[in-house]
Amino acid sequence: MRLSSFWLGEPFRGDIFHKGIFHKDSIMRTTSVRWLSMAGFVLSACLCSAALADDKLWSVDFDEAKDLAGKDKKDILMEFTGSDWCPPCIALHENVLSKEHFQAEAPKHFVLLKLDNPNDKSKQTEKEIEQYKTLSAQFQITGVPTIILADSAGRPYAKIVGYGGDDAEKYTKKLVDQIEQRTKRDDYLAKADKAKGLARARLLAQAIDGIDSELTLTTYRETVDEIIKLDAKDEAGLKTKYEGLVKLVDLKKQLQDIQRNTRDAAEIVKKVDALIEQQKPTGEGLQEALYVKGAALYRTDKAASKKILEEAMAAAPDTEKGQRLKGILERAFKEEPKAEKKEGDK
Predict the structure, then answer these.
(1) Mean pLDDT, all residues of the chain
(2) For 150, which DSSP code?
(3) Are 221 and 208 in contact (CB under 8 A)?
(4) Residue 284: left (phi > 0), alpha (psi -120 to 50), or beta?
(5) First and final CA of the chain: distance in angstroms?
(6) Cα–Cα–Cα angle for 179, 180, 186, nearest 5°?
(7) Are 200 and 42 in contact (CB under 8 A)?
(8) Residue among 270, 302, 306 at smallest CA distance from 291
(9) Which H/E stretch holds residue 109?
(10) Are 279 and 285 in contact (CB under 8 A)?
(11) 3-class SS of residue 79
């Protein structure tokens, strides 16, 4: 399952509606005064990052974390972070990870693994630096902070992107509640081992239902392929569902590439329009494409941006992004109150 919150946002320059997740390249490229205003906050908060690095509660070695999790019968909590440059990462540390409640409760359930990508790598080993590159690619990390929850073998079942300002008690409860996703997965996988044909396909689908789509297609791709094969005639509707998921994730990656590699808003709009014309997405796929287009237009044409984002919400109103778009439209396009006329004004 993938969780989100008010600060959640895509880690690309084109998305200006949320500030709870950052992509390092985007920050380095931008020249906006908005980022410069954060400099004092980042500098003052960097002093606390060393404390987290020295915290004995956290491992910095994936293999060690898996060994410990296996011995202690716990899951693994991976924190992908940019400890000395990412404001929401620093806020997550200050408000949650360094708090007594988290440090007392989280280790009861998880082995804690810190995966850091700081600007200053002088205190990291080459193994840690390479490990971050490997695992961030493996788990499709496109921005930080990102939390991955995995079983003792390192197989993920939940992804929490961004930080929305929750206190330590609320945030820790969200983490612990996600263990139910892994329990459900394991129960249905065990049942699937005893089933065949469509019955097995349905059980496999129930096992991975609720897991983040990107994680599903990286970690559980063999399972997805088997489901499609077992329901080759689409009798259970699973073939259509999972082939659609494959297309959706591929579309998201193409949209991410457009946002990463294109600076000009008009050019982003042009490329997204071409992608829509080529692939003719519907539902959630169309929503993702329109969202990128609307975000790109926000600074130059708010009226057009609002119209497109309304279309994006209507394309799939019940999705996570569809629900978020309601709040975005309310906040980003809130009309400024008109100033009252004073006596003597014309």
Answers:
(1) 85
(2) E
(3) no
(4) alpha
(5) 58
(6) 95
(7) no
(8) 306
(9) helix 100-109
(10) yes
(11) strand
Reading the chain (346 residues) residue by residue, the pLDDT tens digits are 544 333 333 333 335 554 455 555 443 333 233 333 344 444 444 444 444 444 689 999 999 999 999 999 999 999 999 999 999 999 999 999 999 999 999 999 999 999 999 999 999 999 999 999 999 999 989 889 999 999 999 999 999 988 989 999 999 999 999 999 999 999 999 999 999 999 999 999 999 999 988 899 989 999 999 999 999 999 999 999 999 999 999 999 999 999 989 989 999 999 999 999 999 999 999 999 999 999 999 989 999 999 999 999 999 999 878 888 988 898 888 765 555 655 665 5
Length of the chain as a residue count:
346
Is the previous residue joined to 145 through a cis bond, with omega within 30 degrees of 0?
Answer: yes
The DSSP letter of residue 339 is P
Tokens of 237: 């509707």
Structural tokens at position 200: 């097995």
Amino acid at 133: K
Please give the pLDDT value at position 164. 84
**Mode of pairing for the β-strands spanning 146-150 and 110-116:** unpaired
> Which residues does 88 contact at the CB level (< 8 Å), separation at least 6?
7, 19, 20, 21, 22, 144, 145, 162, 163
Q: Could you tell me the CA-to-CA distances from 35 to 31, 85, 87, 107, 116 in Å, in that order? A: 8, 11, 10, 35, 21
Question: In which element (H, E) is residue 28 found?
Answer: helix 24-29
Residue that has been written with the tokens 């399952």 in this structure: 1
Tokens 């007392």, located at residue:
104
Stated as kind and residue range, the H or E segment containing 175 is helix 168-177
pLDDT digits (tens, 9 = 90+) for 172-189: 999 999 999 999 999 999
Name beta bridge partners: 112: 58, 77
Q: Which two tokens stand for residue 154?
A: 């390192």
